[in-house]
Amino acid sequence: MWPLANILGEAVISVGVAASALDAAIELCSNKTPAYQGVPLKQQQLAQFLIGKAASRVEAARDTLLRVADEAYADVENSGSSLTIRSKVRIQLAASFAAEVCAEASRLINDAVGTSSIRTEQPFERHFRDLHVLLQHSDKSGQRYASAGRLMLGLENDWVWLGF
Fold this sequence. Notes:
Helix content: over 70%
Number of strands: 0
CATH topology: Butyryl-CoA Dehydrogenase, subunit A, domain 3
Radius of gyration: 18 Å
Structural class: mainly alpha
Number of domains: 1
């Protein structure tokens, strides 16, 4: 499964960072009343909406990666050799999707926690930055959607790691 197992592993890091950001946001929203406001964040519908939406992104990324990994391992076990092109494409799409939606989750979380997202004593700025760096990595960047699409359309592979 090499190198695609590595690509999956890197995508899992996005899920872990986003899950950590979500946990920190839930903790903060459960206890914070924003300055100049009389209503705690946990009672504000916008914060509830943003936390719920962010959680859905993290769960979708996690579930997608787990499902694709299970299918890829079954593919290799059943064929007795290497991954099929279909499995490679699914892994690539899942990794790109996970990085993308986890970065989106961090933006939603930052909106939910307000100015706490920029304070260095809080973890949100670091989570946001890390998730956006992971999104720019060559094996999960937006260009990889095009690489997977090329293979799906029967065109020549343009990404070295899908060629193994």
